[in-house]
Amino acid sequence: MAIDHLDGRIIVLLAREPRIGVLEMSRRLGVARGTVQARLDRLQSNGVIRGFGPEVDPAALGYPVTAFATLQIRQGQGADVRAHLATVPEVLELHTTTGTGDMMCRLVARSNADLQRVIDRVVGFDGIVRASTAIVMENAVPLRIIPLVEQAAQDRESS
Amino acid sequence: MAIDHLDGRIIVLLAREPRIGVLEMSRRLGVARGTVQARLDRLQSNGVIRGFGPEVDPAALGYPVTAFATLQIRQGQGADVRAHLATVPEVLELHTTTGTGDMMCRLVARSNADLQRVIDRVVGFDGIVRASTAIVMENAVPLRIIPLVEQAAQDRESS
DNA sequence: GTATCCACTGGGCAATCTGTTCAGTGTTTC
DNA sequence: GAAACACTGAACAGATTGCCCAGTGGATAC
Fold it and tell me: Which of B132, B121, B40 is CA-nearest to residue B81?
């Protein structure tokens, strides 16, 4: 579960240049190919690395508008709402949360006008009492993992 | 920018089985290898596919707690706050938004107690007036892109 | 002290895949 | 018609993968 320095370097290297193979990695890292292979296998079976799926940019697909919606759910309707939202393609992720809202989801839309359609579809469901939406203007820090991996590798070092 | 049905099938196939190569894809899709290769090159230069970085699970790294924080920023301090948050490894992404808050970020922490430390570090900066945090209990719909890709491919078909 | 386990090294092997090029074909556009 | 474009099917050398092996060094257990 904890990762060491070499694991960290493997993940960071892979994040920076995803297309390089095991052989090239072993050259860059100065270790044997079998070692990199074994580490990678372990990281994947550990679940640290979930996969290598393509990162698709919704904007390039024609969905340049992103928004976060906080939803309030009618008591006991949680499961139904989850199932409903799972059927909406523009809902990219959904979390149940503590705090003022009960759920929080990430939406994309083709335009600000289209966002209205998406929100209508999202909230057009009986179990949802209220939705409050924040439109994303700028993605100041895109989803990243490298700093956290380096942190985790550091922590492991000093222990 | 718009993708057709074949593009959609390539992306979906790649998302489901990331490790398969161009050759195997061409076999599965029933098209020539050169075609798949050309489509993939185009999708990448279009920016539709950003890359193939490893998907790292913060929970498996020892950060099982996720939270969303809505931040209110002192006027004119936006750039400084962005720079500050970029230095915090536990900040996985950051958006500037419309609505009640000025920014919204995704945080992870080692525990609920550790989340306090992270939040203190996040808000321990002059430009941040107030932070309101929602802890994620369940990730009902993990970040996904396949339904949107299929939608986008559909839209292209019917046009 | 000695045996055992474990991770890593460095090497080798056949099978496979990649990057690239080529000519040929069908479709669309002007 | 001519040109442009995307796709097919094939070929090639070069590189990579998955797999195996023996040897080494450190840590742990007895």
Answer: B121
